[in-house]
Specification:
Blueprint (H helix, E strand, L loop, with lengths): L1 H14 L10 H9 L3 H8 L9 H6 L3 H7 L2
Length: 72
């Protein structure tokens, strides 16, 4: 986690605010998404900056409903 915070330091300076990364296992991510976790839902339908992977990778783990929302 220390390496993540070190990598985010320049981004925080550029944005002028703190960035709080959240790490989930795939199982945690699926459980939270299935249960309609408000924070995760907001993140998935809002603007995101992916540190690893791309939009297709993120959409691959999302539900069909969320894919429709994000694809217009």
């Amino acid at each position: 986690m220390e390496q993540i915070y070190e990598a985010l330091a320049p981004v925080e300076q550029q944005l002028g605010r703190r960035v709080n990364p959240i790490l989930n296992t795939a199982a945690e991510f699926h459980r939270r998404r299935k249960n309609g976790n408000p924070f995760l839902t907001k993140v998935l339908v809002g603007d995101t900056i992916l540190l690893i992977g791309n939009d297709d990778d993120l959409l691959a783990v999302c539900s069909p409903r969320l894919r429709r929302l994000t694809q217009g």
